[in-house]
Amino acid sequence: MIKDITLGQYFPGNSVVHRLDPRFKIIITMIYIAMLFISSSIFGLFVGGLFAFLALILSKIPFKLILKSLKPLIPILLFTSLFNLFFISGGDVYIEWAFIRVTEDGVNMTLYMAIRIIFLIIGSSLLTYTTSPITLTDAIEYLLSPLKKIKMPVHEFAMMMTIALRFIPTLIEETDKIMSAQKARGADFESGKVMQRIKALIPILIPLFVSAFRRAEDLALAMTCRCYHGGEGRTRLNQLKSGTKDYMATAITIMFLLSIIILNIFV
Amino acid sequence: MGIIKTENLTYTYSVGTPFEKKAIDNINLEIEEGELVGIIGHTGSGKSTLIQHFNGLLKPTSGRILIEGEDIWKSKASTRQARFTVGLVFQYPEYQIFEETVYRDIAFGPKNMGLTEDEIDYRVRNTATAVGISEELLQRSPFELSGGQKRRVAIAGVMAMEPKILILDEPTAGLDPKGREKILNLIKEHHKKTGCTVLIVSHSMEDIARYANKILVMNKSKVFCYGKTAEVFKRANEISEMGLTVPQITRVINELKNRGINIEDEIYTVKYAKEIFLKYLSEKEGGAYD
To answer: From the list A3, A62, A186, which residue is nearest B83 (CB)?
Structure first.
């Protein structure tokens, strides 16, 4: 069912990783991504992988869930891998047949890219698995707040994101319900040609849009009734707090980054 | 052999995550053809999950469902057949309306069954009349109708498929008393006319007591009891303990009996209660109320 989509979904828990300040978590994730991009060899990548692996163990997120979030990326992964494999040449030639040439550099690059993408996904899904969407947008708003100086509507942007994230599960549930209802009326979404399948979506999409608009209207009205007037002078119920563990975690992350830089120089 | 039969039916939501929950647990049930069954129970007692098994929308984690004696998960064809044998009207069915005209929305189900144009046309007009949607409304956009009308159009959409078993999940939720009455009456009428089996999920004991001839009480993912309306309401005390209310009139009768007034206890509609009271009083006072 649609409910099984896991990418970008929060997985409640009470581990150290869950309790980190979301602002630091975002920064740490960014450093982690930087690690993966600056490492020039496969060894560097493995140091990054080790970091993600440790964080994964600390977070107590089931490994199965992480694998599940990788599943939708398999087509992209295969696509880039095939391109790299056939179009990068250099070093020894392993296979040569008609226009296909597989070379040493090609194989290396393919492995390197594939591992990088996989680690990238693992790291970023760890962030969303361990941080509730609401605190995540709070943190983003905080981190982007310097942009307010140049008149960027940061608060409005964060509010829109919060609302959008908040309604993802609602709309998924709604889609499930509408699908069941139309299936009960004999609608068939699983067979037929491409055009037929696209047509079969109409009975789902129209009620979904109707209800999304209805919800938006209700929400806007409810917010107005509670005197919502934008970000000006607004205070928070739950203040974001940072402590020793956040600085520690960031320090450890920077150490990993440094070790990759050193690896780059020597390997 | 009942028209619906379940064997050790169990369904678990979100297996393998922290949200894992047994929604229905080892249900063994047999519903006879032509019954009008009321299903009651708390929010989260498993009513909605149970009824979604009857037409194959949910696949049981374990156990079997037999519709007309056939396992609906035996093959793909039998699952599809179950969709047409069992018509399911969801909660707030008006939210699933999507067509440009009322006519085409009611025709959606019959069309999916692969009926001929003439047959579809006949069924649409027939059911529209049955639910009180007049001819001139058929060419209007369903989104222009009132809430009650939309609800009736949505119910007609399922009725037009002429299912042998019609299941309605809280068909009167969110309607005013007049709208509720209208919907319940048209369901009763449909049941009488076609002789099909009808299952109604409801929170209102009053409604169920008035319309159903059998009651299924769900509690904590299990069947608490299933039987004739009178038999079920005999266990009024247990039902109240579960936090469900028996009809007001049944409570009045029970209290009167507790205070030593000797009247029969199988009373759960006001109409019948009035008859009994008048009889009781006339016996007591020598016919003064005749």
So the answer is: A186
Confidence of residue B20 (pLDDT cuts 50, 70, 90): confident
Task: Examine residue A151 and state whether it is found in any structural domain, yes or no.
Answer: no
- Of B224, B243, B262, the residue at which a domain comes to its end is B243
Statement: residue A6 has pLDDT above 60 = no
What distance in Å separates the CA atoms of residue B3 and residue B9, rounded to the nearest whole number? 16
What residues of chain B lie within 8 A of the CB of A5, using their CB?
none
Distance (Å, rounded) from C-alpha A161 to C-alpha B211?
A: 48
- Which residue numbers of A have CB closer than 8 Å to B's CBs? 3, 11-12, 62, 64-65, 177-178, 180-188, 202-203, 206-207, 210-211
> Which residues of B are less than 8 Å from A65 in CB distance?
17
Closest residue in B to A6 (Cα–Cα): B17
> Is B269 found in the same domain as B232?
no
Closest residue, chain A, to B51 (C-alpha): A184
The whole-angstrom separation of Cα A115 and Cα A46 is 9
Q: In chain B, how many domains are there?
A: 2
Domain of B289 in residue numbering reads as: 247-290
- Per-residue pLDDT at A7: 45
Beta strands of chain A (E only): which ranges? 93-97, 100-103
On the question of pLDDT at A228 being above 70, the answer is yes
Average of pLDDT values for B80-96? 91
pLDDT-wise least confident of A58-72, B18-32, B168-182, B238-252: B238-252
Confidence of residue B185 (pLDDT cuts 50, 70, 90): very high
Per-residue pLDDT tens over the stretch A56-89:
999 988 888 888 778 888 888 898 888 888 887 7
Whether B290 shows a pLDDT value over 70: the answer reads no
DSSP β-bridge partners for residue B200: B38, B168
- The token pair at A176 is 């499930």
Residues of B in contact with A181 (CB under 8 A): 88, 90, 93, 95-96
Classify residue A227: in a domain, yes or no: no
B133 and B263 in a single domain? The answer is no
Whether residues A180 and B52 touch (CB distance < 8 A) is answered with yes
pTM, whole model, 2 decimals? 0.72
**Structure-model confidence comparison of residues A13 and B186, the more confident one:** B186
* Angstrom distance (rounded) from CA A50 to CA B41: 51
* Alpha carbon distances (Å) from B290 to B237, B278, B281: 34, 8, 9
Biggest CA–CA distance in chain B, Å, is 70
